[in-house]
Structure formats: structure tokens, C-alpha cells
User: Fold this.
Amino acid sequence: MSIDQSARAALAVRGVRKTYEAGSAAVRALRGVDLTVSDGEFVALMGPSGCGKSTLLHLLAGLDRPDEGTIAVAGTRIEDLGAQRLARLRRRHVGLVFQFFHLIEHMSALENVALAALVAGARPAEATTRARDLLDTLGLLDKSGELPGALSGGQRQRVAIARALANRPTLLLADEPTGALDSDGAAEVLDLFQRLHRAGQTILMVTHDREVADGAQRRVRMRDGRMLADDEPSLVHEIPASLRAGT
Amino acid sequence: MAVETPSEARAAVLAVARAELRRRHRALLLVALVMGLAGGIVLGAVGLAERTVSAYPRLVDAVRLDDVRASVPSDQPRFAEAVPTLPGVAGSRHADLWVAQVEGGPALRFLGIGAGELAPADIATPVIVEGRAVDPAAADEVVVSEQIAADSGFAVGAELRLTLLTLEDVSHFDVGFTPHGPSATVRVVGIARMPSWGNALPHTLAGPAFAARYADTASARSYFLRLENPAGTAAFTAAHSRAEQAAAATEPSIVARYVPGSLAFPRLDVDPAVRTAEQALLVGLSLFALVVGLGGLQVVGQGLLRLGAEGRSAQRVEAVLGMTRGQRVAARTLAALPAALVAGVLGSAIASAAGVLEPLGSQARFEPAPGFRPLWGLAVGGGVALAALFLLMTAGATLLAARPRGIVAGSAPPSLPRTVLRTWARRWPAVLLGSRLAVHGRTARRGLPAMASILAAAAAVAGIVAAVTVGASLTRLVETPQRYAAGADLHLVDAREPDVAALVADPRVTALATTSSATLRTSDGRELGATAVDDRKGEPPLELASGRAPASSGEVAVGPRLADELGLGIGDVLAVRGPGGEQVPLTVTGTAVLPTGSSAALGEQLLLTADAMDLVQRSEPIRDAYIYTAPGTADAVYGELGQNLEIFPREVPESVRNLTDLVRLPELLALVLTLVAGTGLVHVLLTSARRHAREMAVFSVLGATPAQVRATLAVLAGSTVVPALVVGVPLGLGVARVLWHRIATTVGVAGDPAVPVGVIAAVAGVVLVGALLVAVVPGRRAARTSPALALAAG
Assistant:
């Protein structure tokens, strides 16, 4: 990819390395990772457990810092940003979805979504309207007053996705978003991601599930902290048959 | 290790227990030491409370307190002989009473002396706490009460030179006299302890030899009676009343005008101040034990829950290997056994050591057996209970750790009211999140539910506010003699008009009031003390607790204790009987605290006008004078008058003196509450970063800056303590108001509390500012923690 192309990319990662301590041992989680995700692309990042997928995702979200290499999100280099500026970048450009949802248990679905907008500086009325619209779009308006504990796994993950989208981020990062869901819930989430992708949302989804990854536009693979060659681009952006709801 | 047979199960449990013990013995021992320490202090407090509250009844048993105590003037010998033969009397002992003038003191003093039969010894025999009892054959030995020993400085070995009063001397109390009885020099050989002194049981007791030597100058005879049925005093009282009336007709007494016969029921007529002190001390010690106990349980619970949580993954492995939940719990409980024993032994040792503590406050003067008095049953039983509780809590923490993580379900908590606050809260997400976490924080993880922290903090604040308010009220009472009607510098007993006139003319005297005190009888037969006050110079203050002083012969002001006992309020009518038996209605105009004089209890007197007194008085009034002197002149006036007159410097009534012993207790309680609750609150706030690590990480992921994370934890701290202050301060003031009114009324003084506004404001400020400062620590920790790590751990 050329420099021009990198500059236009939603995400550009070059030579990223990360080693962390696990007890007394040093674990080389990333050993020189390169990755580019273009605007509007839906990429599935695959690989076995421990290959460094989640570590990479945390670096991309600015939750951790690389030892070496560069990361550009929406054209902004983030590896040297201070905590304050990283936080601001996350508000504007990054939405994060987790395997275990990580909703705030004592806030309603609406408040969980609105909180993200409030953090980004939206006025209360605007945040509430935006949260309501998102929940409506995701089919959860009738659940907006419910606590997360009253929702199914799929519903909770949709609330988490709505929260991640509350500030219209440049990049939606998802870490095993279907990992804690049954097949119906996984299908719901994957269907939603595809709808978002069709609407132009850039998505990088970490998964170790081949069938889920098949729903993405492009698949990239990692092994032992390194990026392997891209898989062939998927020609069928449909939910795999085994994940379709009701099958 | 697949567990299948019972022997394999036992082996697995033992193996896991050994592993747990190896890995966690230090942590378990530390938690056990906290448990033993807190438990021992609680057990010690329980033991001390038992010793304090049981001091009075144990002394009653130790002295074999009489059921009835009657005194009869010595010029009514037939009535005196009849008393022990009255219906219902099962046994009796008698003593004769003398009045003696003490020679050689700084001021004129009179002393009551009782002497007579020492047998039977199972009725009213004081406990000797220092020295020895009198030798029955020695006419020159006496024992004195602790009270008179303290007030007059009569130590063991002291010699008293006395001149006994004859009957004629006694009958001239109101006009003055020179004693005409024999002189006697007696030596104090012991200090005696008794639940009730006074009247028929004087504070100085001699033996049979004294009684025999001075028999012809005795002024009255006392009987200490044991009734067949102590509860059935009515028959005896009726018979005594009939005998008294008959004696009045057949044996007119001169002495009775000044030393009237008396009838008392020592077992029933317990000074309410004793009960009040018992209750106040019991409440104080219970609160102390409760606070220490709850604080200890919180720390121990937190520690065991954390140990349980740390072993969660190990439990998962054990479960996969086939161990049941019961076996996993049994293994960890077994591993905790040595620590539980340490907790039990330590608690038991501390509880035993607490046996050196004497009863608290005023109750110490009722302890019949001073010295080491451990409650072995409590110490041993408490130690076993502590060990069992430790094991039970370990099992509970293991069970909780084994439970699948719970999630909160249900509808959303109610939003903040649609007010400025709500808008404000939503505008700043840190406020929204922090306040929500404070009220609805996580409950299923380590630590106490968030609301429990707020409620505990509110209870602690209420306790501290109540304690400092009661303490301030107590201090104000004991430091303000006017509140117990002892504002006068000097008290002249049996004040004669020439002496009063001379004092009025004395420029050193700034104010002077004379009182006339007598007894009257209510329409239902109850005898009450009444006083009329005459301001002779200046404006001597009158302590009005409520309403106003009586202004006419149909009005009365009632002492606070009496008003409470009789249920009288302003506007009520108290019906009394005149000397001829006619009804005299008196309208209550207020409550007033009057000087106790020489015998009346504080707060139990009636204040009448002089006219009303003439209408209802049943005995010859005793006239006293209360003298207010110019600054710096009291000692000189006392020194001059004391040569010829029975004059006393300011005296503190016994019920107030009892409270003086308790002044430090509320302050101590407030201090303990502050330390324990403060430690708990600091612990809760310091651990808030760990408790809410996941929420803070999520907040960071959403784009919150480190400053917003710190602010969230500061808001959480503020949201914990502000409701605690909003609820705790008024609650504490309410509790203090009720408690102090109860104490003051029982003592006999005005029940308005002294609210230490400055102290309470300081407490509130320290709590709020302290919480915000403490929140800086977890705030910085949370801001530094990597959200990725926190989410991975959460």
C-alpha cells in the first residue's frame, strides 16, 4: 500500500511490537505487525488463542502502548500521544465492542449508550436523543429502560455496539463480539455488523471463529504475534448458513 | 485426581486443605488476629457491661439489703416497739440514731450516727471496702460511708471529736442551741459500701458498745425489716400508717417536728439516677461493642472474601477434577482451623483480661467485690463462638467464591428528579457515573454493598453527633451549677432571721434567697417536698426548665423529675391535701429546679408561693439561705460564718455527681466511633478503585480522560458521605435530644440539649473533605491502571 493510501486509511499499523511480563517471563505478544484497514472496510482478524489479536486491538484503541512501531487512526499517529489526547481520540474515532459486553450494570441501556455521548461532550438532550435513535435502529428501543441484566446476551451486545457507535467513530473495533453468544445471538450481531458495513462503517473484528469471519469483507490472520498473508476477499458477504438465525 | 470414593474424597479434601494452608497461612493468621482482637474487645465490653449493670444488684445481694427501713422518734417508744411486730414482718434488726456536732472542723457540722444490734447479720450489713468492721465491744470505733469519707475527708484512722445532741437540743434546731449531750471521741476503722444511705441509715455507724454507752441521748430508732413477701408491702404500709396515727394521738413527739419518722423501701425505691447511669453506660458499651464488632466483621469479612476470590480459579480446577462444592468448602474450612483457634484463644484471653476493669463511671461505687473479676463462661464460650464464626465466615466466603458471577437484573434505577441537579449530573458524566456507582455500586463482588456503606456511614455520623451532643449537654450541666440549682456560693442550713438580716446587710453578699421547705401530701396520699423561695437581696436566679414560677396560692411549679413521674404538664392540676384534710388544687405553671437542701432529691420538689405553703405544709418548715457573694469573697464569708453556723460551700447533688463520672464516656464513644467508622470508610474509599476497576476501564474506553476518572471516584466518595451527613446529622441530633431529655429528666434538671454546632460542623467538614482527600489515592490509581488490564481481570 502506498503512503497516499495509508494516509487515507482508517487504520494503518506499521512494525508494531509489544512484549509484556507474565510473572517472571517476558511474552512477546506482537513481533512486528503491519496492517491497513481502509475507510468503509469490514475486516476480520483471525488467529488462534494467544496469537496477539486482543493485544493488537488494545493498542489500536489506545488502551495500551506499543514498544515499537507506529499506529495511525484516522490519520493521527497515536503511539506517542498522552493519556489526555488518547482519550479525546477514542471519543471521536474509536468505538470498542467486547466479548463480554462490559456494560455498566446499574445503568439502563439508554444511559449506557448516552454516557458515551456525554463523555464526548454532547448535551444531555442530544445524548439522550442520539442514544434513543441508536437503540431504535438496533431494535432495542423497547428495552431502553432495562438494566443490562434483564437483557439477553445478544441484546446486551447490541447495546454495547450502540454505545460504541454513539459518537459516530471512524473505526469500530470488536474483540470476539460473538464469543459469549449462542448462535442466534451471534447471527444477530453479525447481521448488525454487515448492516453497519453496508452503511459505510469501518470495522475491525477480532475472532477465532472461521464462520463468523466469513461474514467479513476481508480476513487477515495472525500467528505467534505476526500477521500472515490476507485470505482471499470474501465474495459472499452473507451470514454463513450455520449462523443464520433459526437454522 | 478424579474423586470417586469416600476415602478418595477425604484424601482430596485433606490435600486441598494442606495446599490452602501452605499458601494462605499468613493471610489467614492475619485475618484471625483481627478477628481475635475485635472479638476479644467485644467480649471484654460485654463482660464490662455485665459487671457495670450488675454492680447494683450484686451489692444489694452482698449487703442483704432490707425490704423496709423505718425510723421512729425516740420519744415514741411504744410505736417503736410495735414496728417489728407489724403484719408481714419476717425478721428485723434495729439501731438507735444520734445527732452529733463535730468539733474542731472548719465549719459547724452535724453528723448522724447509727449504732445497735449487729445481728441478725443477714439484714442490711454494709460491705467494708477499706479497713475493718467495728469491734462490738469498742464504744469508740465507727465505720463511715464512702460518700462521707470522700466529702469530709474521713479516712481510716481519723479521729472525730463529737458532742452528742440531747432531745431538747434537737427540738431547738430552728432557734439555735449549744449541745448538751456527752462528748465522744471515735476513730474511723473502716469505710463501708451500701446501696442506699441516709435517713434511717446514717453515714456513720458504731457498734453495740456505743449504743449502750449513749442510750439516753438517742433521738430515734431505726428498724431494718425483712418482709415475708417483699412484693406485698401494702399490708405492712397500711399497718404502719395506723400505728403511726395511733402514736401521734397517744405519744405526741417533740422530736418528730424536726426529725420526723420515716418509712422507706430500699429494694423498691432505687434512685432513678442509678438506673439512668446503668442504662446510659449499657447503651454506651453496647454501641461501643456494636461498632467494634461490625468494624471487625467488615475487615474480617473483606479479608476472607478476598481470600475466597483469589481461590476462585483453584476451585474451578478442583470442580473439574470432581470435587463437590461441599468438599471444596470443607477443605478450605479445614485449612482455616488453626487460624480459627488463634482467633478464639486471642479473643478469650482479651475477654479474661478485661476482668481487671472495674464497673464504669458511677456504678463503680456499687461494686461489692473490687478487683479482678473475669467472666470465665463468657471468655471460654466467646472464644469458642469466635472460632466457630471464623470457620463459618471462611465457609461462606468459599461458597460465595464458588458461586457463578451474578449480574444485576431488573428495571433501571429511578433517575434523579428532573431538577437542576439532574441536568448538572448529566452534563458531567463523572457526576452521573460516580453518584450512580455510590448508590447502586456492585454488590456481588468483593466488599459490602454500596448502599450498606452509605447506611453504615450515616449510622456512624448519627452516633458521633449524638455522642458529642450528649457529651456537650453533660459537660454543660456539670460545669453550670445554676442548671442544678446550685448557683449560690454558700448554703446556710437552718437560717435564723438575725443571721439572714446580717447577711443581707453584708456588702460582700450580692444576692440572697431564703427557702422554706416542708412536706405536703397529695390527695392520693403521696408525700412530697415543697419549697417557697423568698428573694431577700438582689436577684438570685431561679432555674426554670419551662413555663414560669407560681404567682398565687393556687399555683405550683414542679421539679422536672417529679413532673415526668406524675405526668404533669403546664396547665395540669395537682391536688394536694391541707393539714385538715381539705383538697387544695394547684395549677402547674412550669417546671423548676430547686436547691436540694439537705435531703430532697434534685428535681423532685414543688415550688410554691409562701401563701400556698402555709395552706398545705404538713411539717414545720426548715429554713435555709442561699448566698451569692462578690467575686473573691466567698471563702472569707464561709470562714467567718462557719465558726457559729452550719454553712456549706457549693455542693454537687449525688445525681449530678453520678453524671460527672460519665462526662468522658460520650467523648470516648465518639472517638471510638470516629476511629472505627473512619477506618471502615477510608477502607471502602481506598478500595473503590479496585471495586470499580471495570467501570473505570469502560469509562476510559469511552474516552474519559484521567481527570474524569479521578473526578468520578471523588464524586463516588462525596456521594457516599454527603447522604450519610444529610441523614446522620439530623438523626444524631434527634437521638441526642431524646436521650438527653431522658437523662436530664431522671436526674431532675432541664432537658434541653446543648448542641455543639461548631463541633458538628467540624465533624461534617472533616468527613467531607477527608473523604475527598482519601479519594485522591484510588483516583490516581484508577487513572494509572491500564484499561486493557482492568478489563481482562474484570
